[in-house]
Amino acid sequence: MGFLVYFLIIILVPLWAQFKVKGAYKKYSKVASSSGMTGAEVARQILNDNGLHNVQVEPIRGMLTDHYDPRSKVIRLSEENYYGTSVAGAAVAAHEVGHAIQDAEGYAFLRFRHALVPVASFGSNISWILILVGILASMSNLLLLGIVFMAAAVLFQVVTLPVEFNASSRAMSQLVSVGVIRNDEERETRKVLNAAALTYVAAAAVAVLELARLILIYTGMNNED
């Protein structure tokens, strides 16, 4: 029964987070911002105000595919946010600019996350192979190695949290200071940003829970020996 509850949690929590972010985005993507600025214009103005004239803003296909590419110095906004004038679009655009500002300032957690990318990518790809073989073959050393690799991927998820929360905090302050949103729009904007943050919190929580479960399995395997 305990395992059933556990697996329901790790499945339902991410789904709930996705439901919340899509719901908030869908609702506020229909609410026009008072400034009438498109997401592209919002991003460009905040970038210029922060002296980041070298960072480009481009449209990209898909829904909520918005991201900042630190290698190319490009903010890519989904077409709906790039061309649209909604509160949600402005919030998302400002959030991605927040990452560009972090990059320009050498924000410590962002630099740490970038350094973790190759290790986390390799760890997430190979960890489950080692873990499954270790459990099935009752090889605790192999299981431990898989846990170590998985821990690197989990660390990446955890470090992502301050990066995302900081980007959202920067987004709110920039939107207000630039005058993109009015006081009565701050609440709506925060709802979009907070809902998006839930997906990262859920992912990190599930990753930590799974890591803890595997550590318990490893401990139990050693105790049997």
Automatic annotation (TrEMBL):
A molecular function (GO) term: peptidase activity
One of the GO BP terms on file: proteolysis
Keyword terms = Hydrolase, Membrane, Protease, Transmembrane, Transmembrane helix
Q: List membrane-spanning regions.
A: 6-25, 115-136, 142-163, 192-218
Looking up Pfam families in the UniProt record yields:
Zn_peptidase_2
- The protein in question is named Zn-dependent membrane protease YugP
Organism source for this protein?
Priestia iocasae
The taxonomic lineage of its organism, from the top, reads:
Bacteria, Bacillati, Bacillota, Bacilli, Bacillales
